[in-house]
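Before going further, learn to read the protein records used in this course. A complete example follows; check for yourself that the lines match position by position.
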Amino acid sequence: MKRTLLFLSFFSLLFWCSLSSCKKNIVYAKGNLTFSTDTVVFDTVFTTVGSTTKQFKLYNPSNKPLKIDKIKLMGGEQSPFRINVDGLKGPDISDIIVEAKDSLFVFVEVTLDVNNQTLPMVVEDSIQFTTNGTNQFIQLAVWGQDAYFHYKDLNEGIWPNDKPHVVYGYAAVDSSKTLEIQAGTQIYMHKNSILYVYKGCLKIQGLLNQEVIIQGDRLESMYDDVSGQYYGIYFHEALPSSIDYAILKNGTVGVHLYSEDAANPSYTLEMRNTKISNASRYGVFIYSGAKVKAENCILSKNQNHSLLVLAGGDFNFNHCHLLGYGGSQVPTVGISNYFYNSVTGVTSLGNIGEGSISNSIISGNLNAEIVVDTLSQGSTVNLNIHHSLIRHQEIPTAAYFSNILWNVDPLFTDVAEGDFTFSNTSPLQGGGIPSAVLTDILGNPRNNPPDLGAYELP
């Protein structure tokens, strides 16, 4: 009898242990997930109502199982995206176990009416993965309107102008290739995106009243004057390129040029009849030997310099507006043939073989709107700034300034509204010297003598 009771007690103990404390505990990994991508981009252009599915993988790199506490589609039920993880549908999924060294597929679907013109150019959302108190995110993006979309792609030939172009990440022109952008093309740049010309050629071929417009892809009115929405155009040792009748606004820079193709004896960029405004840093940035020729251009209200030359480079600006007025606390024109890297302690020194500004306006709200800082030893510096109106309260004595109207109000029509035209009461009228620039930015013929800046009074 005692033996029977002992057996029953032992059996009960085993049964109890199997249900409770004697059950083996699972020890989960303390790390986090890795993913096959950080961004899922739906690059299909829909014409009516579109629906497509993409996938990516999440990985548990640990030697132990990993528990995903929560997977959340941040846009919730209102998101155009839908998610499915291991057969479980979102927008909220909890307590997913990924075995050691294993992976799971995540499926993402989107349905979007791209003919709805109230949508932004790019519709975005994200998926949040929470493991061990850490949140990780996968970005989702789909084109919101009917357009040509460029997602980290290489470009050559001619961009059609029948629909807008949207750049997400970058649109690149590779070595020895040429990209032509036709008159009337509308280009929308997503956050941090860039038009990158690497040893290639870019030709922007706008016309009067058919300008090529480059701006951010946020279409809400609150973004009309927000700077830094994208990077800008970057030329890296580019082949001879050109920009004519373009409007570049609200970027980080308008045009950034690095170095010069050694085989190119001419200008890296010739820019005409172009407006660059409201960049969060520079309008035109010439660095380390690049060469720029600009005619009838208006660079205004950029947050730092409208024109910056650093570590050398050549420039010829004729009949241009180089204006501050954008809240900048540095002069609108900065010229230097060197750059000191405070991290490495290395000074880069370059030449300024041609440094010409003529028939132009350098003005703004500061007491001094031009600064020149050059090192003479071991470098060539040829500056010639003449027949221009310049704001600089302490008049410089440097010999490279000649025939300058110092500290004279140009009497622009409306600085606050960005209207830099003027009337016949302005000192800009007849203040220039004849040159090869025979018409102004509006196509009006130049008088003799011509007016200063990009506009000519009839």
